[in-house]
Amino acid sequence: MKRLVLACGLSACMAIGHTASNTFNTQSSQFTVPEIGAGVGLIDQQKERMIGEKVYRQVQKQLPVVQNPWMEDQLFSVFSHILSQTQLQQPIGLIVVNDPQINAFAVPGGLFALNMGLLNSARNMDEVAGVMAHEIAHVTQRHYSRSQEAFKGQGLLALAGILVGALVASQADGDAGAAVMMGSQAALMDQQLSYSRNQEREADRIGMQYMYASGYNPQSMADFFEVMHRSTSRLSFLPDFWFTHPLTTERMSEARLRANQMPKVKPKLIDQNFEIIRWYSKVLSRQTTEQQLKILAGQNSFAGQLALTAYYLQQGDEDNAQQALDQAKKYNQIHPLLVLFQTDIYLGKNQLEPALRSVRSAASIMPENRALNYKYAEVLIRMKQTDQAKMIVQRFLNANSRDLSAWRLMLSATNAEPASEIKTINVLRYRAEMEYWTGNEEAAIKSLLHAQRVSKKNQSLSASISQRLKQMQQERKYKI
After folding, report:
1. Is the pLDDT of residue 295 over 60?
2. Does residue 135 carry a catalytic annotation?
3. Binding residues
4. Cofactors per UniProt (predicted)?
5. Active-site annotation holder among 99, 126, 127, 204
6. pTM for this prediction
7. Rounded mean pLDDT of 174-202?
8. How does strand 111-115 pair with strand 93-97?
9. What are the tens digits of pLDDT across the range 309-330?
10. Cα(316)–Cα(331) distance, rounded to whole angstroms?
11. Residue by residue, what is the 3-state secondary structure of the chain?
């Protein structure tokens, strides 16, 4: 039996299917997904989650991950909508990588990642949803773990290390990429990284069903295959084994045929929210110019005006940012990015009271909006109102302990507090969490050991630190 690659980048997802079995019932909106969860034990699920979190930390350490709560949450809301069609438990999360290549990957346990190049190249959110659905299907069908004999012991972790190595190599030159292939890892890859055509077909088929059930146009998966086909040369940095089954006209035709068998979904002529995401992504990834944005903004494009504002903020030019933002406000008064950008302009000018007025109301009205509340917390920290800021951030940490943006704010708030023994302990604790979730596990453990020594007089706090320290030390034993 052919063994499976740990993670499926889009480049690896280009396997040909010779015959596309179709379980979609064209007479109704019902579809069937193979039930494979019954045989998955708790230990297997825990192992997959541990692997996903390990890769999460390594990717945070070695790749240019975007830390932008608004962008993260916009994309994760689409992911969550598709995930609602599955039996997958709470995923580890979504990572946005600042890389111009068209790529995405998924890891056991429910870790998903998208490159900004994918957002920059897609023409609508349905195309992005098609990619997401394909990746979700690989995870829900456990394509990475179903060949149990191939993944005994540390096998999956070894493959996790190869995944991270290949992703890092994609950021470097050819020599660096070749170095990743050397030695025993290269031999392991040669034996284990052949993708199953049947599994690729299954991910295509089930992924398309997921996206249709979520309300997205299945034709868009076939459409984006064509975009990928035109851009294949841009993925040439990856080793040849990623291209065992390149995307061909045959696979594109199968995707189109499958989409045609589904009930029609009326395409959106204009998706303003996606245009905002795409142009903001281009700014964050520095894949656009001031001139391009000025032309777009001059065409009364709200997305263009917001992107131009973001561009000037990125340059530290608050005056031009304000002019662009004022133009955007003529067309929309309520979009969260208007509030975020206005607050950033005030903060850039050290105008704290106007910054507070700008964001406080919106954050209070939308307490579930992470981006607005984190910006509110940032303003509060600047104004030395640290207790309130930490209360706001802690709500989100309770839901997701891997939230790096939240840990940064907690550390920033604690640093702004008056000197005390508790401050010293909390600085060490929050620094440890930041170090840990950015892959610096050894530094995180050292910080917690220091916090443990300082907290000996505080029995409750010391016990909490000791418990977290034990957990970190145990998880660090799993080497990639």
Report:
1. yes
2. yes
3. 134, 138, 200
4. Zn(2+)
5. 204
6. 0.83
7. 46
8. parallel
9. 999 999 999 999 999 999 999 9
10. 24
11. CCCCCCCCCCCCCCCCCCCCCCCCCCCCCCCCCCCCHHHCCHHHHHHHHHHHHHHHHHHHHHCCECCCHHHHHHHHHHHHHHHCCCCCCCCCEEEEECCCCCCEEEECCCEEEEEHHHHHHCCCHHHHHHHHHHHHHHHHCCCCCCCHHHHCCCHHHHHHHHHHHHHHHCCCCHHHHHHHCCHHHHHHHHHHCCCCHHHHHHHHHHHHHHHHHCCCCCHHHHHHHHHHHHCHHHHCCCCHHHHCCCCCHHHHHHHHHHHHCCCCCCCCCCCHHHHHHHHHHHHHCCCCCHHHHHHHHHCCCHHHHHHHHHHHHHCCCHHHHHHHHHHHHCCCCCCHHHHHHHHHHHHHCCCHHHHHHHHHHHHHHCCCCHHHHHHHHHHHHHCCCHHHHHHHHHHHHHHCCCCHHHHHHHHHHHHCCCCCHHHHHHHHHHHHHHHHHCCCHHHHHHHHHHHHHHCCCCHHHHHHHHHHHHHHHHHHCCCC
Average pLDDT over residues 353-380: 97
Question: Is 254 designated active site?
Answer: no
Q: What is the CB neighbour count within 10 angstroms for residue 463? A: 12
Nearest C-alpha neighbor of 254 from the set 296, 191, 202: 202
Binding-site residue ranges for Zn(2+): 134, 138, 200
